[in-house]
Amino acid sequence: MKMNLFKPKDVISQQLLSYLLLEHPQTEDGKLPPASFFAEKFSVSIVTIREILKTMESTGILSMHHGRGIFLNHGDTIFLEMFETRILIESHCSRLAALNLNEEGALKLQELAALLEEATHSGNMELYTDADFMFHMKIAGISGNLVLERTLRNIRIFLYVLQQETNRTLLESREKSLVEHKEILSSILNKDPDNAEVAMKKHLEKTMSLWKNL
């Protein structure tokens, strides 16, 4: 089962990030080729690439300096900071979701939790990663705070690349993660904002710890 999670531009963003982190030769100062190089490489317009680079700059992945060029920031530090930001946003979104939950939101969260369980037991990593993404983004949507939801989506588009690798590498952590997702779900369904916030924070802190040790 393949979910269409991302717009075409988001997919190019992920491909570009993967290329920068895994394939592009690293220079001492982190300087990257011009936007035209990436437009040609990924067969998209220069306008699209510039929009993607702007989004990357807004999340701290790279810096653009007029007259000097584009520079990749230190990957590990940036992604840790993005993950820390994710923890702050999602913990509060979980609190708001518990307060603002409606019937449609409850049913969708239960459906996504069931997909997570199916993927965990079947070992389907693609389904697991996609269901996890949708579960967390649905909570942000239920929160009712559009700014938090959009900010989180921008962060998670880029963290998705790393999450795929984490899920493939740390197979034994999936069962524990499933239990944590059920705790988050239960707190939100019970409309318990305090426990929902704590459960999400604990889950994401454990996930970040696993990722740091990869």
Automatic annotation (TrEMBL):
<dbReference type="Pfam" id="PF07729">
    <property type="entry name" value="FCD"/>
</dbReference>
<dbReference type="InterPro" id="IPR036388">
    <property type="entry name" value="WH-like_DNA-bd_sf"/>
</dbReference>
<dbReference type="InterPro" id="IPR036390">
    <property type="entry name" value="WH_DNA-bd_sf"/>
</dbReference>
<protein>
    <submittedName>
        <fullName>FadR family transcriptional regulator</fullName>
    </submittedName>
</protein>
<dbReference type="InterPro" id="IPR011711">
    <property type="entry name" value="GntR_C"/>
</dbReference>
<dbReference type="GO" id="GO:0003700">
    <property type="term" value="F:DNA-binding transcription factor activity"/>
</dbReference>
<keyword id="KW-0805">Transcription regulation</keyword>
<keyword id="KW-0238">DNA-binding</keyword>
<dbReference type="InterPro" id="IPR000524">
    <property type="entry name" value="Tscrpt_reg_HTH_GntR"/>
</dbReference>
<dbReference type="Pfam" id="PF00392">
    <property type="entry name" value="GntR"/>
</dbReference>
<feature type="domain" description="HTH gntR-type">
    <location>
        <begin position="7"/>
        <end position="75"/>
    </location>
</feature>
<keyword id="KW-0804">Transcription</keyword>
<dbReference type="InterPro" id="IPR008920">
    <property type="entry name" value="TF_FadR/GntR_C"/>
</dbReference>
<dbReference type="GO" id="GO:0003677">
    <property type="term" value="F:DNA binding"/>
</dbReference>
